[in-house]
């Protein structure tokens, strides 16, 4: 009965146009696989773009919000989980995802990758940030997958599951 | 796009036969309204019974788990959110529910009612524990609804939403 | 090496003059025992009064704050722990206290008592709220101690430790 | 009245002999400055070594524990804060530290550095892991300080405070 959940993590306010495009495409493809999309739930950046992508293909979207109220929530969420625990909710994001895809890089995203690895989760990195790939790949090689495209990310997720 | 979420809270291992029956019926009726059921997600007591009830009518079930891994999860969950934060997850349970229904009473349930009231959520009490009704009704009268049956609980939830 | 920690919980903005007076006296007596005082750390109500009481006798004061920054902190804290997790921090308050003393009553305080009982902690109730005493005493009789004065509360804590 | 808190973060079970030695020295020097030492509180690795170092110079030691009970606690803690929230407590570690010193590297440590940067905290890196220095320094240059020795770490902390 349990559904597969794919977490897409990435920058909020600082996301680049390319990251937003990738996030939207990831959300769309995740939905098309019949997987549930999980994000940090805010109405900005990779979270919002991925959720909108998933909804464009009638996927189910979950947001694990840092806040305890309705402010700043993505309009593209089906299910809003309010944690009121700020960035500590990043640990819930990754523990609840069968696979974590990092789309872009930033301090929040780095914390999610690190917490995922600490929790022995598999993480797929799709980012232009070369230093992050070198660092995380060395940190826990067998759990880190580096991909070059959205299509690769989905194929890798499929292989991992 | 956001779906309505009804939280059903109640005892785990110590739930009575009557509470389990009520929880199952609550889950079933919640699903029949098209609402999502949210529980604490474990495979015992009111959480498990409500989730099974919801699934019996093809509802969608979310569990907010105290643990960080697969042990002790209800088989009747569609979506498992792993918090790994023990009873502190009770705050997430209530903040994420549009209405909270307490089915039975115990220390964990009491904490959820109190956290719900602290967060200005509406709480419906369905329990034989008279002292809890007197206490919580006095604590925040305008947010506490005392009901005598599962059907009353659902009707009250509908009126609140 | 580990020091004894006594948690004093109670209303914030809504604390009565009597509760504030009791909280100050509790903090003072806790410090005089050589115990550390733990509160919710905000600059209002029972938290603030107890912390000021402890400092008046050169005690050590810890505040477990709901916020992630300096706003609203009691001036009487030696050690500020910033959780940024709102009322979910109430579980940390009680798990970290060797004994919990509830001074007054409210939704937040009720959540702390309930979480303490869920975690099998001993709780001392000093409050005019009769309904809360009846409810919590019935909920877990062997862990709940009802006292009538600050001096009784401290004597009871000493007996429990 | 508020005391200065320095967080020392680093590997647990996998800490190297050199990291343990540095951690002990850091704890000792932190105590000698009159600062409070904050760690993750467990009885292994950098946490335990730093706490023992601080106690060797009569410092005050706080541990923010991932667990909710006494198992696995460092003997060198004066104050144990039980979160029962696993690695999500890493956010509390860094939010509660005036300066964070990373001594060594690992997934947990990386999550703490990232969460610290997300929360706009200053982080001092003392590690042989070159890739981590390159990555984090690029991520938020103005908040990351790279040092080559324990003495440098303390001097840098002093300059930051």
UniProtKB/TrEMBL annotation, chains A, B, C, D:
<dbReference type="InterPro" id="IPR041164">
    <property type="entry name" value="LDcluster4"/>
</dbReference>
<dbReference type="InterPro" id="IPR005268">
    <property type="entry name" value="CHP00725"/>
</dbReference>
<dbReference type="GO" id="GO:0005829">
    <property type="term" value="C:cytosol"/>
</dbReference>
<protein>
    <submittedName>
        <fullName>TIGR00725 family protein</fullName>
    </submittedName>
</protein>
<dbReference type="InterPro" id="IPR052341">
    <property type="entry name" value="LOG_family_nucleotidases"/>
</dbReference>
<dbReference type="Pfam" id="PF18306">
    <property type="entry name" value="LDcluster4"/>
</dbReference>
């Amino acid at each position: 009965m349990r559904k597969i959940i794919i977490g897409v993590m990435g920058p909020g306010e600082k996301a680049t146009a390319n990251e937003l495009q990738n996030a939207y495409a990831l959300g769309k493809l995740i939905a098309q696989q019949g997987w549930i999309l999980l994000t940090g739930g805010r109405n900005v950046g990779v979270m919002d773009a991925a959720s909108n992508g998933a909804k464009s293909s009638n996927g189910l979207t979950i947001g694990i919000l840092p806040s305890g109220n309705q402010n700043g929530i993505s309009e593209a969420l089906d299910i809003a989980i309010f944690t009121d625990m700020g960035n500590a909710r990043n640990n819930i994001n990754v523990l609840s995802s069968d696979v974590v895809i990092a789309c872009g890089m930033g301090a929040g995203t780095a914390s999610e990758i690190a917490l995922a690895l600490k929790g022995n989760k598999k993480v797929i990195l799709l980012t232009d940030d070369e230093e992050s790939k070198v660092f995380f790949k060395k940190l826990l090689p067998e759990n880190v997958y580096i991909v070059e495209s959205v299509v690769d990310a989905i194929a890798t997720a499929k292989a991992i599951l």
